[in-house]
Each structure stands twice: as C-alpha cells, then as structure tokens.
C-alpha cells in the first residue's frame, strides 16, 4: 500500500480509489509515510482528512446490513442442524463446529475484497473438501488421529479465512499482519458482544421468571444458539466498518500484557524447577506447557502486529525481545520433552503432531527474535519483524493440511 500511495501522490483520483478500497490499511500506510511527505500540499490535505476524529459509528450500506443478517441466520441454522435433523450432537459439533462461522466470514471478506471468481472457487473448494473429509472419517471414539483432525481442521479453516482476508492484493505480508491484528480486534469486540448478550440474557430470563414463565431451555436452545453464532460475524463487521472502535483498545492491551506475560513466564519457569514437576514424565503437564507456549507466542505476534502500526519506545521493543527469548527457552524445554518421550515410548499421532508444531514454532520464534534483535541494535525497522511473521504463516497452513488430511491415513485412523 505504501508503494501505491507514493506512486499516486500526484493523482488525487487514484489516491481516493486506494482509500475507498481499503480504508484501514490506507490510513496506517499514509500515517507511516507522512513524516517524509510533509512538504507536499496534497499529502497535507490527506493528513488533515485522515486525522479528523469521527466519533460516529458507521453501520455500512443497506446491502451490507442485509448480508450480515442473512449470514448470522444461516450460521445459526447450521448450529441448529443436530436439533433440526436429529444428528448426534457430539458427532456434529466435534467435526463441524468451524463450519458454523468460518464460511460466513470467508464470504464476507471475499465480498469486501472483490476477489476474482477463480480464487473464490479455490477457497470454497478447500472448505468443501474439509467438510466432506472430516465427516467421512470413521467414528472411532478412541482415535487420536480423529481428534487431531478435528482440532487442526479449525486451524485449516482459519488459514483459509486468512487467504480470503488478504484477497487479491500485492502487499501480501502487510495484509497477513493485518489478519493477525483483525483476530486480536475480533477477540476484543466479540467478548464485548458476548458480555452484553450475557447481561441481556440474565435480565430477560429473570424478568420472565418473575411472572411465572421458565424460558431458560427455550431461550438457550434457540435465541442463545443464534446469538453465539452471530457474535463473531457481527464483531467482524463492526471492526471492519469502524476500526476506531477497538483501534485504541488493542494497542493498550498489547502494551499492558506483554511485560506482564514476561514476568509471569519467568516466575513460572523458576517455580517449575522448585515444584518437581517436569514435562518429560508428566503427559498432562506437557500438554498444558504446550498450550502456554502457543498462548505466549500469540501474544508476541499480536504485540508485533500492534507495534508496526504506531511508533514504540525502545523499552517496549526490549520487552518483546526478552519475551521472545524466554518463549524460545520454553519451546526448547517442550521440544526436548517430546523427543524424550518419543525415544522412550515410540512415535504416536499425538507426539508426531506436537513435535511438528513445536519445531515450526521454534523456527518461527528464532526468525522473529533475530529480527527484533536487529531492531534493538538499530539495524532494521520493526516492520521487518511483521514481514517475517507474515511470510511464515503459510507454513502453518501447510502443517494443518498434513495433520488434518494426511495423519489419519498414515497412522491408519488410530
């Protein structure tokens, strides 16, 4: 986007088209470039225009609202399939929970980005392949590969959504980082929607109880299901049409939690030494340890995504660097524990999946940490860290394909 702005700086019409095509990305790119363009009169005009604070909430066009309503209703109906058609709930939700929301979000971004028909067909085909495959897998309750496929199918769908978010863009790395930021904003917005919905639910149920009507079962089985399905769809719409709603909240969260997580992680590692617990002989502890690792890595990536949008102090970059180094240590412990368990008790689908995931995370963290170190010593810009993260995301996508579609075949559905 920055290159396009520079190329069309003397072309007001083209700048306007770029702005209308992707307002949030245009604003971020322009604000980054503006210190170099202050002498340009047109750049000054755009700076004033983009800096104007608009407190009004935009609800988008009528067509957009109709689309969101229809998408939310369809998502709710998909969630109600077990009740409507008598399908076993455990079977349906364990395999198809991602299909409740992800297709609607994919269509939203494909529509927003005006993707080419060929690319839309590829994305739709990927989702259809996942739908057919996961529901054809043998229903073996003790199958580790089935559980792994169900979990990684959600990550596969999330990756497909990322391709829809990026669209037919040339600035792919920037858009991939924008996808991570979107996920952070969506978590904040969806949490607010669910909290508000929870309050409304409590008030409604208790008001009806006061006049003698017990509506809990009806409410949760109908209105509650539709509300849960609609929350991320409505949250996505609000974050995309009104980026200012959480635009100031997300950076604050990243700024506060990065140092807190760093302190927690250091204290936890010290406490682990004194507790006598270790991931080498305790399987449950290893699982929790890996969950901790993934959560911390997500915070690092989210913090980097926010850091690239606004200027950061040296201290904040140092915190990110320290957090990355400590996370690499945690990853090293987890990886060594997995290798130890494989050497002692052999390879299993679970161990193979965790080994591959941890190896990819370690490589990604090493690359990110190396880039952050270059930022610390002044050899590069923080945006290079974001590019490193963006370039690595497709590798995770490939891994989700392997675990979801290949593992059940390789391990004989065990």
TrEMBL record:
Annotated transmembrane regions: 65-85, 91-110, 117-134, 146-166, 186-213, 219-240, 252-274, 286-305, 317-340, 352-377, 389-411
Keywords, alphabetical: Membrane, Transmembrane, Transmembrane helix
The protein, known as: DUF4153 domain-containing protein
Domain of life: Bacteria
């Amino acid at each position: 986007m920055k290159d396009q702005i520079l190329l069309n700086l003397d072309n007001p019409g083209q700048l306007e088209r770029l702005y209308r095509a992707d307002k949030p990305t245009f604003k971020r790119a322009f604000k980054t470039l503006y210190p170099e363009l202050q002498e340009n009169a047109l750049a000054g005009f755009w700076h004033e225009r983009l800096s104007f604070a608009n407190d009004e909430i935009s609800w988008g066009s009528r067509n957009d609202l109709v689309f969101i309503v229809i998408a939310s209703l369809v998502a709710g109906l998909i969630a109600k399939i077990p009740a409507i058609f008598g399908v076993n709930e455990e079977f349906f939700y364990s395999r198809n929970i991602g299909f409740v929301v992800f297709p609607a979000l994919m269509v939203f971004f494909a529509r927003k980005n005006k993707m080419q028909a060929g690319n839309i067909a590829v994305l739709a085909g990927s989702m259809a392949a996942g739908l057919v495959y996961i529901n054809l897998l043998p229903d073996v309750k003790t199958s580790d590969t089935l559980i792994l496929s169900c979990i990684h199918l959600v990550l596969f769908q999330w990756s497909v959504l990322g391709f829809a978010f990026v669209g037919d863009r040339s600035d792919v790395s920037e858009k991939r980082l924008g996808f991570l930021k979107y996920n952070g904003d969506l978590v904040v917005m969806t949490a607010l929607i669910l909290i508000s919905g929870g309050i409304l639910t409590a008030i409604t149920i208790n008001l009806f109880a006061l006049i003698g009507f017990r509506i809990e079962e009806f409410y949760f089985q109908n209105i509650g299901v539709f509300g849960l399905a609609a929350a991320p769809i409505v949250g996505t719409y609000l974050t995309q049409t009104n980026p200012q709603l959480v635009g100031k909240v997300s950076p604050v969260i990243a700024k506060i939690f990065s140092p807190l997580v760093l302190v927690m992680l250091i204290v936890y590692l010290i406490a682990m030494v004194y507790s006598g617990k270790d991931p080498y002989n305790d399987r449950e502890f290893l699982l929790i340890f890996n969950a901790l690792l993934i959560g911390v890595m997500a915070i690092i990536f989210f913090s980097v995504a926010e850091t690239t949008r606004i200027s950061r102090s040296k201290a904040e970059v140092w915190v990110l660097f320290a957090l990355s180094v400590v996370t690499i240590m945690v990853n090293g412990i987890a990886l060594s524990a997995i290798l130890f368990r494989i050497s002692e008790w052999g390879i299993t689908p679970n161990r193979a999946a965790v080994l591959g995931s941890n190896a990819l995370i370690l490589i990604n963290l090493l690359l990110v940490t190396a880039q952050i170190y270059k930022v610390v010593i002044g050899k590069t810009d923080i945006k290079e860290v974001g590019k490193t993260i963006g370039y690595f995301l497709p590798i995770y996508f490939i891994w989700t394909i392997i675990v979801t579609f290949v593992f059940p075949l390789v391990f004989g559905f065990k």
